[in-house]
Amino acid sequence: MRVPREFAEMTHFYAVGKTYSACFRCVALCTHRRVGHGFQQESLHFERTKMLCLIPLLLLLPLPSIMSGFRQCPSPCLCYESSDLVDCRSQGLDQVPPGVSSGTWLLDLSGNRVREVRSDSFVGLWSLKFLLMSNNSIHAVHPQVLRLDHNLMQHVDSSSLRNCDNLRKLDLSYNRIRTIDTRAFHSLSRLRLLHLEGNRLNMLKDGLLSRQQSLEVLLLGHNNISAIEAEALAPLRGLTLLGLRGNQLQHIKFKTFLKLQTISTHLQMSLNPWTCDCDLQRVFGKIQYVRHLHVEDYKAILCHAPPQQAGSPLASMDSQLCMAETASVLVITITVMLAVIGALVKAERNRKNKQAASDAESSDK
After folding, report:
1. pTM across the whole model
2. Are residues 243 and 221 in contact, defined by beta-carbon separation less than 8 angstroms?
3. pLDDT surpassing 80 at residue 139
4. How far from the centroid of its chain's Cα atoms is residue 143's Cα?
5. What is the band of 333 on the pLDDT scale with cuts at 50, 70, 90?
6. What is the C-alpha to C-alpha distance for residues 263 and 261, in angstroms, rounded to an integer?
7. How many CB atoms lie within 10 A of CB 5?
8. CA 95-99-104 angle, 5° bins
9. 52: how many CB neighbours lie within 10 A of its CB?
10. What angle do CA 311, 242, 288 make, to 5 degrees?
11. What percent of the chain has a predicted confidence (pLDDT) above 90?
């Protein structure tokens, strides 16, 4: 079985840490020789012993790390250069220490007295993968950007983001999210970007975005969305981009988008299995004439049904769809009219025949 790289590196982190401690104890003990009731230092013995004690540690460190020298390390933490690990456990810290190397991938702040995590606490730590902050005194988290993309989340409940009212950007893309509680985003009134691409959502419900008047970018591409409820987009007064590419939309209602009372909103609607009929053509035709709505990829919208139109761009048959429907309606109307006329003629003929028969009977009498 293949051991994950992160687990191997974490194991290496503790192995190196133990080696450091062991070697430091070794140096401390071996560089002094007991004579009577005191200690007498011998320089030659000190140098030899120190080198012997440090050999195991040097073997654990990659050659480039040894050659490059030590990187900046925040006081009073321990930094293990071989794996870009920073150990600040139980140091009485009341805040995230400055000076953590940008290459750090594991930062352990467990067992301290950190009370608040600010939005700028981890600026520049581009390689950070593991952040350990258990057993602190955290009472507030104030990030402006929260990235949880490419994980295994399936559901977002109403309490998941309750204390993130300062959040500006939330990235939940490429998870396995099927459902989101209607109140899940209620505390995120300052949210400007919501990234939900690459999940398994099948509907955009009324009320989900009722507090997101400041939302500017809503990315819902590559989900399974087949329906957008009538009031789902109505609260989004600041929306500039709505991404709906790659979903399961076959039809849409014009009033759903008419509720978007914004200055200017760009829509991305391609890669859906559209059923191209006159109704769909009318909806997109109306959207195109609404000044603040712009379908960015209108020319890339392809018909999925009916079969005779599959693969054809909707833009290439704007007039054809409704013309064909109009012709069909006209044919049906004419057929009905002819049938009605025929029925009237037949009824009149029957009436006359009955009248003639009645007149004949009266004559015979």
Report:
1. 0.60
2. yes
3. no
4. 17
5. confident
6. 7
7. 9
8. 100
9. 13
10. 60
11. 43
Q: Is the pLDDT of residue 69 over 50?
A: no
Q: Which H or E run includes 332?
A: helix 318-364
- CA nearest 129: which of 17, 13, 6? 6
pLDDT in tens, 11-67: 444 444 444 344 434 433 333 333 333 433 444 444 444 444 444 443 344 333 333
Could you give phi then psi for residue 284, rounded to 5 degrees? -70, -35
Q: Please identify which residue in the block is written with the tokens 């009212």.
A: 165
Alpha-carbon distance of 111 to 11, in angstroms, equals: 20
Tell me the pLDDT band of 175, cut-offs 50, 70 and 90: very high
Q: Are 141 and 114 in contact (CB under 8 A)?
A: no
Which residues make beta-bridge pairs with 169?
145, 193
Q: How far apart are CA 302 and CA 91, in angstroms?
A: 61
Contacts 24+ apart (CB under 8 A), 264-267: 264/240, 264/292, 264/294, 265/239, 265/240, 265/241, 265/292, 265/293, 265/294, 266/240, 266/241, 266/242, 266/294, 266/296, 267/242, 267/293, 267/294, 267/295, 267/296
Query: Using CA atoms, how far apart are residues 35 and 41, in angstroms rounded to an integer?
Result: 10
